[in-house]
Amino acid sequence: MKIAILGGTGAEGSGLAFRWAAKGHDVVLGSRSAERAAEKAAELSAQLEGASMQGMDNSSASSWAELVVLSVPYSAQEKTLAALTEELSGKILLTVVVPLGKPVARVHRLPSGVSAAEEAQQQLGEDVRVVAAFQNISAHHLMDLEHEIDCDVLICGAKKADKAIVADLCADAGMRGVNAGSLPNASIAEGLTSLLIGVNIRNKIKNAGIRITGIE
Amino acid sequence: MKIAILGGTGAEGSGLAFRWAAKGHDVVLGSRSAERAAEKAAELSAQLEGASMQGMDNSSASSWAELVVLSVPYSAQEKTLAALTEELSGKILLTVVVPLGKPVARVHRLPSGVSAAEEAQQQLGEDVRVVAAFQNISAHHLMDLEHEIDCDVLICGAKKADKAIVADLCADAGMRGVNAGSLPNASIAEGLTSLLIGVNIRNKIKNAGIRITGIE
Q1: What single-letter DSSP state applies at residue A91?
Q2: What predicted TM-score, i.e. pTM, was given to this entire model?
Q3: Is B211 helix (H, G, I), strand (E, B) or coil?
Q4: Which residues in chain B have their CB less than 8 angstroms from residue A200's CB?
Q5: Most buried of A2, A78, B1, B200 (most Cβ within 10 A)?
Q6: Start-to-end Cα distance in chain A
Q7: How do beta strands B53-57 and B26-31 pair?
Q8: How far apart are CA A77 and CA A72, in angstroms?
Q9: Helices marked H in A102-181 — which ranges?
Q10: By CA distance, what is A179's nearest residue in B?
Q11: Which residues of A touch B178 (CB under 8 A)?
Q12: Which helix (H) or strand (E) holds A17?
């Protein structure tokens, strides 16, 4: 699959890119700066024999891709998407964005009253299918392909078929994706991140995660 | 510990009561009807040799207890608490309440913009220490003492000491309590219930739960 990762030079974006490229996906890192994206892509490619990874500016990356991952800080979400409405049309936008407040360990309620994922959907309109996932994954061990991430991925979105595609991407990144319902439920996945940051702080650990029990 | 459970005749309230009584706590089931509470208490006591369990009306139960558990439907929360402000003063109110909307599998956003637990705290004022816990526990297996509940309990509240008391009650009910931060984070625990109901429906199961990974 042709996957573009906007904000692909950050820890989570590049970590997911690395795991997907290792599984044979065509991956493009997107960034405001094509140069920075190309540098990071070269750095990651050097660690992956035979893997395909390039860097482009966000617009070119979005045009090229079949599926686009949004991995920018929440503060950059609206502006990033505003420039890409046409490029994203007809595609799945997989958002991993988490809005954090102060203190970071307390759930952050956006003034809109909805999740960052729903804000993205409202901004982009019906031509883009927004799916939220990977909100609770610690970037810490993504670059170590042998490391088993002890965390399930909650997948929220309107369409079952789109969530199934994202579940396959979860599996390709070494994680189990769980259909967690419609897009408003992304507010739970987003808020869980704050809660898990608090668990990390209180327990002096770095990779608190969640597992859904009772399935199978 | 002297524990009163308001709404103690329901499935979750009576299940927790049963497990705590089995561990030697003094438990009183509270209900609007003292008769109904006494009947349920007698029914549960008959299954537990040597355990102490009584039934009272909500007001008497709250006056008697050291710690009060709120296990009523969300629709009854405000009215139930309005009648008990004095009885609850100086005590921990452990709320297990979850507001559900329609569809039940979609996170329910209260008009107040905060969690049911925070609404309780705002209503009761600073003399009552509200702690939220057990939002995600399926009542399904609580009455079977041998059954290991495969779910952690997220504990949210202002004071560490109060959360430690609740963590002990989690252990006494056979579960691990995890300090999940301040009271606003209860909105995540409450919303997770909707998400887990959806997991139950989609997977045709009855006891989806969550585990926090990475601790220890």
Answers
A1: S
A2: 0.96
A3: strand
A4: 214
A5: B200
A6: 29
A7: parallel
A8: 6
A9: 116-124, 160-172
A10: B199
A11: 199
A12: helix A11-22
Chain B residues touching A182 at Cβ < 8 A: 105-106
Single-letter code of the amino acid located at A110:
L
Cis preceding linkage at B73, omega within 30: no
Q: Are A109 and B113 in contact (CB under 8 A)?
A: yes
For residue A172, the one-letter residue type is: D
Does the model's ipTM exceed the 0.90 cut?
A: yes
Q: Is A209 helix (H, G, I), strand (E, B) or coil?
A: strand
Burial class (CB in 10 A: 0-12, 13-18, 19+), B17: buried
Contact B157, B163 (CB under 8 A): yes
pLDDT in tens, chain A (216 residues): 999 999 999 999 999 999 999 999 999 999 999 999 999 999 999 999 888 799 999 999 999 999 999 999 999 999 999 999 999 999 999 999 999 999 999 999 999 999 999 999 999 999 999 999 999 999 989 999 999 999 999 999 999 999 999 999 999 999 999 999 999 999 999 999 999 999 999 999 999 999 999 998
Backbone angles phi, psi at B131, to 5 degrees: -125, 135
Q: Which residues contact A115 (CB under 8 A, 6 or more apart)?
A: A132, A183, A184, A186, A187, A190
Residues of B in CB contact (< 8 Å) with A are: 105-107, 109, 113, 138, 150-151, 154, 178-182, 184-185, 187-188, 191-192, 194-196, 198-200, 202-203, 205-216
Neighbours of B171 (CB within 10 A): 13
